C-alpha cells in the first residue's frame, strides 16, 4: 500500500509535527530539522483526528475510525491514556471529531452513532442532570427547494433558520419534560404552556406508525382557537418588517420621492 498522510498537526509550541499515515501509524517529527523522532503504534484504522493540548506541548490526542482514542506524550513517544469506543450490541463507533476544552481539563468527542463523549477529571454528576438521549424533533425532517433553489422545511414551507426553536426529544421522538425544553436557545423564558409540543402519528421507514412531535401547541389552543405557534407569529411579523425595510431601501436607491418633499428618503 502506498503511504498517504491523512492528517497533520503541530504541537502547542510548534517544536513537533505529528502526521497520521494510512498505514495506521502516527509519526512525530522535529519541525525544525525534519528528523523522524517516534512512531506511535496503536491505531488499527485510518486516523482523521489529531488535536494538540491547549497549553501542554507534550500532549497530543488522536482518534480514528477504529473507535480508539489515545492521549500521547509525543516528547517520549509513549501512550498515556487509551479509550475504546465500544457500543453494546453494535460493535465499535468510529470517532469523527475531538476537541479540548480551553482549560485543557476536558475533551469531547463525537462518533458515527450520534454519541457525544465527554472525558475529564472529577465526577460526572453535573452531566447527569440531562437525559442521555437528546435530539431536536426537526433533526430528520425532510427538506425541499423552492423556485429560487432555497432550502425549505417540507412540512412548514419555512426556511430552517426561521423556524421556531425545536423541541428536545428522545431517540424515539418522545418529547422531554418542560424543564429540559428550556435548555434550547430561544426557549429559556417561555411559559409552560408554550413548551408543550403537538404530537402526531408518523409512519417510519419500516411501516410502523409511531407518535412523534410535529409542532408546537398551547394548553388551551383548541378551546380558544389561538394561533398554533406564538413564535411562528413573531417570526412572520419580523419577516414582514424586514420586507418593508428592504422595499424602502430599494425605493430610496432608485431616487423616487418617498415623502412628498421631492427628495428620496434614506433607508
TrEMBL record:
In residue numbers, the region (Disordered) covers 240-267
* First and last residues of every WD repeat: 1-39, 40-82
Q: Which InterPro entries match?
A: Bromo_WD_repeat, WD40/YVTN_repeat-like_dom_sf, WD40_repeat_CS, WD40_repeat_dom_sf, WD40_rpt
Q: What is the species listed in this Swiss-Prot or TrEMBL entry?
A: Steatornis caripensis (Oilbird)
Chain segments annotated as transmembrane: none
One Gene Ontology cellular component annotation held by this UniProt entry: nucleus
Q: What Gene3D superfamilies does the record tag this protein with?
A: YVTN repeat-like/Quinoprotein amine dehydrogenase (2.130.10.10)
Q: What is this protein called?
A: BRWD1 protein
The GO annotation for biological process reads: cytoskeleton organization; regulation of cell shape; regulation of transcription by RNA polymerase II
List UniProt keywords, sorted A-Z. Answer: Repeat, WD repeat
Kindly list any coiled-coil regions of this protein.
Answer: none
Source organism phylogeny: Eukaryota, Metazoa, Chordata, Craniata, Vertebrata
PROSITE patterns referenced in this protein's UniProt entry, alphabetically: WD_REPEATS_1, WD_REPEATS_2, WD_REPEATS_REGION
Q: Repeat as a keyword?
A: yes
Compositionally biased, Polar residues: which spans? 240-261
